[in-house]
Structures are given as structure tokens and as C-alpha cells.
Specification:
This protein has one domain. It is about 70% helix and about 0% strand. It contains five helices and no strands. α1 runs parallel beside α4, α3 packs across α4 and α4 runs antiparallel to α5.
């Protein structure tokens, strides 16, 4: 009989991470449609061409972009941070965490009139701090579990 592992689970599995990220990206797309405007200046020219009602059709392209971000980030984390195992899961979990905090902020602004952080530009340092703290903590445990 196999003994249960005492290792701490600090990252999401790839399957769970991608499912959650897909849900969050769809949620963000539908919130954009509900608001009637795309807040991200990178996507605004595309949305202006196709129309705000078609933003959910961009989800596969966003997920493809995130796929390359995760793969590239995992490669960097293996090379620079010397994390040989679970580097892809670490980057994916950090991305899920950032997107979750962002979607939570969008929902709080749209539905609950939360105005402490007025713009997503002001939210960026918060997202960076949250992801950085999580990544350092998870990296410490991943290196410790080797």
C-alpha cells in the first residue's frame, strides 16, 4: 500500500489550471460585453474592428497567447530560477492567480461600485505584488521538495 505523500501542493495541476484560466478568460470576455467596452488598450483596436459583442470569440486567441506565455515562463523559470520540476504549473498558477484577482476587481467595480482602485493601471502593481509573493513562496517549496 502506498503511503500518502506529505508534500505540500503549492501549484495547480495543468488540467485544473487551464480549466480555471479558461473560465476566467470567458468571464472577462462576457464582462466586457456587459460593460460595452474593452478596457485593455492592447485589445481595443481589435475590438473596435470586430465589435464588442464578438469579444468572446477572441477567447481561443487569448488562451493560445497564454499557452506561449506559460511555456516561455516555464522555460525561463527552469533556466534562471533553477526549478526543474513543476515550473510550467508554477507559471500557470501565477497567471491564474493574477487573472482571478483582476476579474475579482472587475466584478467589484461593475457590480458593487468599488472605487478604491479606479483604473486597471493602478491595479497592475497590486497584481505584480500578489504574483511575486506567491511565486517566491511556491518556488521556495518546490526547491525544498526536490
Amino acid at each position: 500500500m502506498k503511503k500518502p505523500s506529505k508534500m505540500k501542493k503549492v501549484v495547480l495541476s495543468k488540467k485544473v489550471g487551464w480549466i480555471i484560466l479558461t473560465i476566467l478568460v470567458f468571464l472577462d470576455a462576457f464582462l466586457d460585453v456587459k460593460r460595452g467596452v474593452e478596457g485593455n488598450p492592447v485589445w481595443q483596436p481589435i475590438v473596435n474592428i470586430i465589435g464588442i459583442n464578438y469579444v468572446p470569440f477572441l477567447v481561443p486567441f487569448v488562451l493560445l497567447l497564454f499557452y506561449f506565455v506559460v511555456k516561455g515562463g516555464a522555460w525561463l523559470s527552469r533556466k534562471v530560477d533553477k526549478i526543474p520540476t513543476k515550473s510550467e504549473e508554477l507559471v500557470l498558477t501565477a497567471l491564474v492567480l493574477a487573472y482571478f484577482v483582476f476579474d475579482l476587481w472587475v466584478i467589484s467595480v461593475d457590480f458593487f461600485d468599488f472605487r478604491l482602485i479606479k483604473s486597471h493601471y493602478y491595479l497592475t502593481p497590486v497584481l505584480v505584488i500578489v504574483v511575486l509573493i506567491y511565486s517566491l513562496w511556491a518556488e521556495y517549496y518546490l526547491k525544498k521538495q526536490k
